[in-house]
Amino acid sequence: MKPDALTLSLSLALLGGCSTLSDPQAGRAESLAMPADWAVPAETLDLSMLPQDAGLLDLFRQPQLKQLVDETLNNNLDLQHTALRLRQQQLLIAPERAARQPELTGSLTSQRSKEKTISNQQTLALTLNWELDVWGRLADGQAAAQQTAAAQKLDYDAARHSLAARTVQSWLDISLRQQIIKTEQQWLKSSENNRAVILDRYQSGLGNLADLATAKAATARVQASLIERQNHQRVALRQLNLLRGVSNNSEPPEITVTPDITTPPISLPGTVLARRPDLQAAYLRIQAADHSAAKAYKQLLPGFSLQATLSNTGQDLDQLLKGSPLWSLLGQLTAPLFNSGRLKAQADIAQLDAELSYLNYQQTLLDAVNEVDNGLDLEATLAQQEKALAQALQHSQTSLDHYRSLYRDGVGDILNLISAEQTAFEARIQLLQVRQNRLSNRITLGLALGMNI
């Protein structure tokens, strides 16, 4: 039920409109033309040669992550609700399909009456009704239901991909924050060591109480930051468990080595966006709305139906299977003559729904282009930030070692040491945060490019 990939790719740049719409909005579609260099990545991107059908989990080199994602997809309650709604929509196809087929009904009636004497009459009848789909109205109804179900299946796929991406990003957030927490714990330990050194120097007559108070203040600030970050970690763990559909406090696998998440592969714009389930679903909803509008307009046309009846009558039930049954064949032509404009209004509403689905497709397409643009731009920006912060960490660590050596030799100032220490640890934390943002953005970019799980 998915649209042909080539058809969808060509429609990404310019959609001509629906066949039943009087105004195809062709002029508005011209604004959807994509820039010639839209999918050309910046030179700063180190793009891998992943296959075009690679999934989100293929960007990782963390085998234990797949188990976490599978658990989330199996247990997430919102995804289960989406699956049930999909099942409901799929069941709606059956009535539309059945409307195009003959309908056979059986009936058994029993009548007892009295005039002069009491008489019984039993009637057994088989009736065959068949509406001839001369104008294709019933076919349009079936096609609309099928396209809607196919679109909802794509919505379900998109929900699965989005949930997998959120799970991976939450896992990244928790794991990288744990590394930041360890860094702040090291910072706190270093601050406490500074305070102990200052106290020893003071007791030896080489320092003063002001230096000790300064060290205590620095330690308290680090401790406050650590407490806040640990609280955020507990909240993030509960949020991930909510995604996983579990109520326990079990923790996900921790990153022992910072993962190298590959940049998603980039290809031609039409090929990129044609993989997105949300865009495919929007395209199918145009077709479904088009069929619904056609069905509504065909309600204004005459209808043709056939009815065949086979019946037998007797006083007792055992007489119903004896003798020659009666049969009849009825052809019927019906046409709406006067209904106060009800059918015409319903047809106009259906046409407006088709136009709305077309505009929704345009908006989905624009959002898709914008998401990919933002992801590519952010990847380049974060790569530059990560490089600059790595250099900053290297220089600040050199500065810290210098001031620490001076202070231990008794020729340095405590304020310079604390300032250098703060600069070094903050640079390390900022570098971890940028790496976290960059890895998370690559998952977002992969999702924008239509990568599946």
TrEMBL record:
InterPro entries: MdtP/NodT-like (IPR010131), OMP_efflux (IPR003423). Keywords: Lipoprotein, Membrane, Palmitate, Transmembrane, Transmembrane beta strand. Coiled coil: none annotated. It holds the Pfam family OEP. It is a lipid-anchor. It is found in: Cell outer membrane. One of its GO terms (cellular component) is cell outer membrane. PROSITE patterns: PROKAR_LIPOPROTEIN. It comes from the Bacteria. One of its GO terms (molecular function) is efflux transmembrane transporter activity. Belongs to the outer membrane factor (OMF) (TC 1.B.17) family. This is Efflux transporter, outer membrane factor (OMF) lipoprotein, NodT family. It comes from Marinobacterium iners DSM 11526.
